[in-house]
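Protocol step 4 of 5: obtain the predicted structure for the target chain.
Materials: sequence only (see below). No template structures provided, no constraints applied. The aim of this step is simply to have a reference model before the mutagenesis design in step 5. Sequence pasted as it appears in the construct record:
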Amino acid sequence: MLKRKIIILVLIALGLAGLYLFIHMNFQAMEYLLRTRLEKILAMFLCAVSIGVSTVVFQTITHNRILTPSIMGLDSVYMFIQTIVVFLFGSGTFAILQSDAYFFVTILLMVGFAFGLYQLLFRRGENNLFLLLLVGLVLGTFFSSLSSFMQMIIDPNEFLLIQDSMFASFTDVNTNLLLVSAVIIILLCIYIFRYRHYFDVMSIGRDHAVNLGVPYEKIVKRMFLVIAVMVAVSTALVGPITFLGLLTANLAREFLQTFRHTYLLMAASLLSVIALLGGQLIVERIFSFSTPISVIINFVGGIYFIYLLVKESKKI
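Step 4 output (structure tokens):
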């Protein structure tokens, strides 16, 4: 039954990919259109897998279905980096934002932020994941406030450069970075998939998992850093999509009704692919690029987040 549901999701994802590839095709410019659309599909696939897998694992190690990796403050750090570059370099910012080196520097700074939190709390022997998340939330708010302050005092024309980076976009992805992003995300997914059976046990609670012989603390620490790298790569590639992971990870659990992460990881990734392909089709064919895809996903995800809050509050 689970395999059949996964096959259904694969068929829907392939159908949307085919629709996106060939709808409104101009056969006189077919070679160019196919190449650009395939590059967009690859970017959406990488972003979807990265967010879907990282969110499922993050919810498993935190035992909370309404949390996503963005609570660590990585999105705020990303926006702070974008803002401070515009603030310091002004009109020369566009060339910097389009460079390959800037992509790697952004990833290093975001992962460095997560690693700093890791060193601050885990290395002191406190092993308190929720304290770490709380510190990440506070620091994320701090960086967001600094970004807002700088955005208010810069030139309005330069602010437009920041405004573009506030929303995820697949129309201006740096194609030179797709290959290296694919290698990083595929290797991390393979690494995470090796722990899928441990995640099944960890989902029943820390004490039970420890009693059953799972090296709980060691896995949580490793996954925290792996998740930080995956989120940093996808955010640096296309921009932040806050509610995509929340939406697809929970839909995967509702759709499959299982604790087995072999299927949950695949379903969350496929649902993310479906959401991004469907959203991009709506953006391009209905709204004529007038609305960023992240606005649509955050709108739907926000409503679903409220539904989850109301649903969980009734259990208390």
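Step 4 remarks: Residues 76 and 143 are 6 Å apart (CA to CA). Residues 30-62 form the longest helix (33 residues).
Proceed to step 5.
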